[in-house]
Amino acid sequence: MADLTLSMDSMTYGGYALSRTLDGPVFVRHAAAGEHAQVRLDHVRRGVRFGTAVRITDPSPERVAPACPHFGVDRCGGCHWQFMHIEAQQRWKAHVVREQFRRIGGFAAVHMLPVVPSPAPYGYRAHLTLHLDAGGRACFYAEDERTLLPVGQCALAHPALQAVLDEVVRMRWRGPGRLRLMVGSAPDDVLVVLDRPLQAGQRSSLPLALLDHQGIAHPLSPHDKCSVRFSLSDTVYQVNGGSFFQANPAVAERLQADIVALIPPDTPLALDLYAGVGLFSRPARARAQSVVSVELSAAASQDARVNLYGMSDMHITSSDTLEYLRGCLHRPQVVIVDPPRAGLGAQVCAELLRLAPPLVLYVSCDPTTLARDARALCAGGYRVRSVQPYDMFPQTYHVESLLVLDCLNPILQLKVVHLLSV
């Protein structure tokens, strides 16, 4: 396919610039809105063309030099927008969230709060996943999501995590495989998590852990460990090598504080669904008389029992969220949800509508599934109070959001109270 010369109109979810042409839209990597570029067409998917800007002929005034040597055309796929000034990134992330609510959710307008910035545009990540090629070299996936690219540094990694990466790169590992690198709040609290044993005779100065069939990390030897600790809002959270935790602890702390502030004082019952290691459950107990923390992951549930230990009226349930809701016989006043990228889905939304909690606090890393679920919940009697984007992942197109939903259907609420009291 021959290269095209295109002008970019806006930015879209997925990190692409959108160019509208007489032959239909073209979604372009490595270009910013307002720029003109020479574009290589890469593929056509469902009749839509996708390409890559191989030369910028008229750059945007918001274009900046990337900080990472691995960033560029056909290079590392971990970052998408390093060429764009951080304030422009945040502005376009807000635009993307608003557009998803309009296009996917069908909302003419929503109350969108200003994007909460990350204190650090680089060096913020507390964990990374590396992929080992057949030769055992540490790699990230390239932009094509198939090619493994050997790396020596990551501009997004916290400096202490970069030091771990330096040591990992010097070693020869048993590939193919995967490594997870983690650093807690203390710079010397580091961990490397393996998905397979070391080669015979291999040694490392780094603490090592090995994942079991349940996804729980265990110390590789008596001298190793299997978790790190994060301190948020003066509270320490244990995080196993197999547990999920936000990659940007500074922004996660702000998100945590915002959620807690939204919970009315003396709330009788709050549910924390997809609760992970208890990041929201623990502070929610300060505002709610009783909290139920629900998590399916064996590793995260194990951490939650440590992090929430000794708290009165704190109930920890190792369960699938949908199964828990189907058996729930008590009506919560507040429900916090933080699902994976796939979102809640129709069945969980239906169960929330059955319980009709007055307040739903929905944390999402995907504005597309967030808007879809918001549409379903609002069709059943909820109203969007606000949407708060967070720049949890600077230099990428990813954006975290907090959706606040109020139940405004009094008939639905009275019906729920009656059914749950029978």
Structure description:
This protein has 422 residues and is α/β, with parallel strands linked by helices. Helices cover 24% and strands 29% of the residues. The chain contains nine helices and 22 strands. The protein has helices at residues 86-103, 159-170, 249-262, 281-284, 298-307, 321-326, 345-355, 367-379, 410-421; strands at 4-7, 10-11, 17-21, 24-29, 36-45, 48-58, 127-132, 138-141, 148-150, 177-183, 190-194, 208-211, 217-219, 227-232, 235-240, 270-273, 291-295, 314-318, 334-337, 359-364, 382-390, 400-407. It has a seven-stranded mixed β-sheet with strand order 9-8-7-10-11-12-13, covered by helices on one side. It has a seven-stranded mixed β-sheet with strand order 18-17-16-19-20-22-21, with helices on both faces. A six-stranded mixed β-sheet has the order 1-5-6-4-3-2. A hairpin with a 5-residue loop joins strand 12 (208-211) and strand 13. Helix 1 (86-103) packs parallel to helix 8 (367-379) and helix 7 crosses helix 8 (367-379). The longest helix has 18 residues, at 86-103. The protein is globular. The chain starts with a strand and ends with a helix.
